[in-house]
Here is the input.
Amino acid sequence: MTETNNKSGMSRRDFLITAGAAALVVSGSAVISQKEAWGLKVENLKPETMQTIIQASRDIYPHDHVADKYYAIACKPFDKADLKDDIEKGIDILNAFAQAGFKRDYKDIGWESERVQVLRKVSDTPMFQKLRGNLITGLYNQKEVWPLFGYQGASADKGGYIERGFDDIDWI
Here is the structure.
């Protein structure tokens, strides 16, 4: 049994879920991270759509040590006029599955495992496949995230990997 606050009609569980999900907020035509102090202006998509795409990106390629801003940078290319209808339609489908299973939009589901359940249901949709495919390069080709994964960058201009620790096997 959950206790409900009489003034707001919101249970403690709903409050905690909402408070936890508020890491990214929509303000006007931007998605803003209050926690990390960055913002992403959205020109074609609804800001709520971009917020959902960023959350889905984090759930598709989860890395706790990678800040949301890098996911936002990877998702910015989806904010194009020629992609708008397909992306908005895909997010509507995602939210429909989230509403059917959890009675809230995808971005408002508090538990990652529950969001992943929803993603599995839409994993064969064109929007999901486009998002997953574009994230591979959009997220991992950002030079700023390379150090987070221990990648030192290209070495061809430095003589190759053989002279730069190719045989370092300190992990054995």
